[in-house]
Automatic annotation (TrEMBL):
<dbReference type="InterPro" id="IPR001810">
    <property type="entry name" value="F-box_dom"/>
</dbReference>
<dbReference type="InterPro" id="IPR050648">
    <property type="entry name" value="F-box_LRR-repeat"/>
</dbReference>
<dbReference type="InterPro" id="IPR036047">
    <property type="entry name" value="F-box-like_dom_sf"/>
</dbReference>
<feature type="compositionally biased region" description="Acidic residues">
    <location>
        <begin position="111"/>
        <end position="123"/>
    </location>
</feature>
<feature type="domain" description="F-box">
    <location>
        <begin position="131"/>
        <end position="168"/>
    </location>
</feature>
<dbReference type="InterPro" id="IPR032675">
    <property type="entry name" value="LRR_dom_sf"/>
</dbReference>
<feature type="compositionally biased region" description="Low complexity">
    <location>
        <begin position="62"/>
        <end position="77"/>
    </location>
</feature>
<feature type="region of interest" description="Disordered">
    <location>
        <begin position="1"/>
        <end position="123"/>
    </location>
</feature>
<feature type="compositionally biased region" description="Low complexity">
    <location>
        <begin position="1"/>
        <end position="13"/>
    </location>
</feature>
<protein>
    <submittedName>
        <fullName>F-box/LRR-repeat protein 17</fullName>
    </submittedName>
</protein>
<dbReference type="Pfam" id="PF12937">
    <property type="entry name" value="F-box-like"/>
</dbReference>
<feature type="compositionally biased region" description="Basic and acidic residues">
    <location>
        <begin position="93"/>
        <end position="109"/>
    </location>
</feature>
<feature type="compositionally biased region" description="Polar residues">
    <location>
        <begin position="48"/>
        <end position="61"/>
    </location>
</feature>
<dbReference type="GO" id="GO:0005737">
    <property type="term" value="C:cytoplasm"/>
</dbReference>
Amino acid sequence: MQHSHIAAASQSSRGGDSAESSDIKRGKKRGSYNCGRCGLPKKGHNCNVKTPVSATTTPADSSLSVVSVPSSALSAPRQPPSNLRRALSFDGLDDRASRLDPLDDRADGDSFAESDPEPDLDLDLDTDSCGLPASLRWEVMRRLPPAGLLSAAKVCKGWRETARKLWRATEELKLRVPANVHVGFVASMLQKCPGIVRLSLRMESDFDSTMLACIAFSCPNLESMEISMFDTATNRINGDELGRFVADKRNLKSLKMEGCSNLGGFVLCSSSLSTLWLSDLHSLSKMVFNCPQLREISLEFSCQENDGTDLPTVIEALGRNCLRLQNIHIASMRLSHAAVLALTAAQLRGVRMLSLVLGSEITDASVAAIASSYPNLELLDLSGSGISDSGIGMICNVFPETLTRLLLALCPNVTSSGIQFATAQLPLLELMDCGMTICDPNFPDPTADEDDCKSQKPSSANQQHINQKLIIKHSHLKKLSLWGCTGLDALYLNCPKLNDLNLNSCRNLHSERLLLQCPTLENVHASGCHDMLIDAIQSQVSNAFPAIDNHSPSKRLPDGSKRVRVPYLLSGESPEPEKKRRKIERLPCNVLVD
């Protein structure tokens, strides 16, 4: 014991020198000679302190691992930068991260969250130990990913204070919750950002009432919430819990939630809610909407045959209390003509986008009801319905001056004649999806499994879909999808603004019957096509992008500082030889295979 006290005393007597030497070593970043768990010297030391659960190693794509570790584990190597550069996003370990500019504010469009660029503090007067102004430090640190921000907070007191204010100024948080993470870690992250107004959770673990209560308590000013579920996770929220949450959040404007199979029924009352997305709904006993500000709704039901939801009653209640609806999307195998009549009886004159998907009982009579009730539609999606070319004729007669997007995928009664008529009569059309409409019954379904393909037999019901020709000439069309049209054997396109063409699984399309006159094409999807067709596509799109000759000579300014273009009529010189002319190359079109 005496020896230990003497050693300690002698060590403390040299405290100043050892502190200076340790600072020098720390500045050279040669690593720590002490244990990261207990702080004792590493030499001859076997640490018995267990690593906390929150510091366990997680896979590289686990975004929460960069924020759920304690302070002793923050000396780990820095994670790759997030593709959402200016966001406090914990889903940043994306494959595209290495290809983005670290300071590019435009990365990923509007999906990043932005802290307040002018916080309520005097940034110009404060400087750190290196003389860096606080305003510049703020601008640099607000572009860091979460791992970098946590590491920067360890540098000094000034950096730690700036990081704390950045967390508090955050308005959007995107969080991925792994299966082994407790709700307490989510609560701690939400408490770091009390000013959150937009929250997005990607759940690998179950989402239950405890997590919902945590969000309700920690985010008093929440305006937007999105919950997405992985296949291994289950959404255990019932209708009563969801109704209480919506009623308590008086500022909530947008709610998007997946995996809503356990709702059973709900009553939603909100004076602020304007966007509602619910998916995986099943056998709802009641659906009551008292949301006068609701403008967009998406209801996707599960594809189970035992779904007992009464859709006409649900749609009638929706139209009775949500008179400001503009965008409606309903996907259900139980959609029928009766449901369409219930929707049209609501007299929702403000509807601009209508999507009724997977309703095989929707017929041309349903199209007539839609056309008479919604004369100003800009988007119409009747994919999976039973409409025919007659229904397309009614669409063209009513919406020639408004419709810009028409989606008719998986409509077996539509032929190439109806598609050609639609493109000829709808001059404002920019997007058209006709996937799996012109199908040869002798070819297997591209969307079916191998076992299903083997069991399929040719049918004589759709023999008129064999060997069809499609000719489209349109001046505004930008995207055209013909995926899975196995009955199409000839295609002629003259679309000067077309930039995206989907020909996936067009197995019967002949290369010598393909003509693409689309000079602005950027992407052609040709997965599942035979090699001769792919070669023909590549040949035609490469010939559509020739190099443009630059006929203007290049001259320097009188001081010799800059080269400028001068027309020949001003230069007084003869044109340059053909071989000396520069060529301006255009970006080639991408032919995507597999």
